[in-house]
Every structure is written in structure tokens, then in C-alpha cells.
Amino acid sequence: VGTSPCQPLTEVCLSLAAHTLICFSCSDASSNWACLKPVKCGENENHCVTTYVGMGIGECSKSGQSISKGCSPICPSAGINLGIAAASVYCCDSFLCNISGSSNVKASYAVLALGILVSFVYVLRAQE
């Protein structure tokens, strides 16, 4: 039995009519463009979740990132940014709301520079 090219669109329309949540889904993708597959969530899954983990600085962080998306029964929003490593979990509860790559928490030059500056100040004060 073959599937029609219109089948995903039909499932989306039927899910909207049944008030079923639809989220984007992927696992361990290196780019947000690889995370645009819509899936119908289960009856007890009321949230869409995006998990982002990245290593590196600025443009160098693109190769060391992992993005996962899907449905979840809980909403575990959290984030941490250590300058050269970052992780975040973004959660929402509307139709295809997890489209972004949770890029609001990424490794940045500013956080890295601040960490280095604080380290230098600590070392200089310890020598006094």
C-alpha cells in the first residue's frame, strides 16, 4: 500500500480538527533545517520540546551542536551557558510552536570574555 504525498497534510488537518497537538520532531540533528518533520503527539503529551546542546565559540559552534525536538508530557524549560558550552531546553504548547533551534542559549564571546576577566581578577587579587 503506497502513501499519498498529501498524507502528512491530511494528518495535520485531521489533528487540528481533533485538537491534537502537533510538534516538530528530530533526534540529534546538527541543524535546525533537519528538524522540520511534524508529528502528532500522544494523548497525554501536551508540550512541544526543543533541546539544544552546543560547544564552541561563535561560528565555530555550528559544527558542535545537537538539536532534538518532539512531544512531551512535561515542560522541562532550562538553560545553561558556560561560554564555550551551552545547553537549553525550550518548551511550548501550541501548534508547531517548537520551530526555532532554541538559539537563545548559545556559546558566546561575551560570556567567554567575562569568564576570562573574572579569572584574571581572581589571580591578581590572590597574589596581593
Explain briefly what this protein structure is.
The chain has a single domain, classed as CD59. The protein is built from two helices and six strands. It has helices spanning about 5-15, 110-125; strands at about 20-30, 35-40, 45-55, 65-70, 80, 85-90.
Beta-strand percentage range? 25-35%
Output the CATH topology.
Answer: CD59
Please give the CATH class: Mainly Beta
Global geometry: elongated
> Strands of the biggest beta sheet: in what spatial order?
2-1-4-3-6-5
Number of strands: 6
**Domain unit count:** 1
Helix content: 10-25%
CATH level-4 homologous superfamily: CD59
How many helical elements?
A: 2
**Rg over C-alpha atoms, rounded to the nearest angstrom:** 20 Å
**CA-CA gap between termini:** 79 Å
Domain UPAR/Ly6: 21-112
Keywords: Cell membrane, Glycoprotein, Membrane, Signal, Transmembrane, Transmembrane helix
InterPro entries: Ly-6/neurotoxin-like_GPI-ap, LY6_UPA_recep-like, Snake_toxin-like_sf, Toxin/TOLIP
GO molecular function: acetylcholine receptor inhibitor activity
Key features of this structure:
2 helices; 6 strands; Snake_toxin-like_sf; transmembrane helix; 128 residues; 6-stranded antiparallel beta sheet; alpha+beta; Toxin/TOLIP; signal; CD59; 23% helix
How would you describe this protein?
The structure is a single chain. With 128 residues, this protein is α+β, with helices and mostly antiparallel strands. It has one domain: CD59 (Ribbon), CATH 2.10.60. It contains 2 helices and 6 strands. It has helices at residues 7-17, 109-127; strands at residues 22-29, 37-40, 47-55, 65-72, 78-81, 85-92. A 6-stranded antiparallel beta sheet has the order 2-1-4-3-6-5. The protein is elongated and about 65 Å long. The protein starts with 6 loop residues before the first helix and ends with a helix.
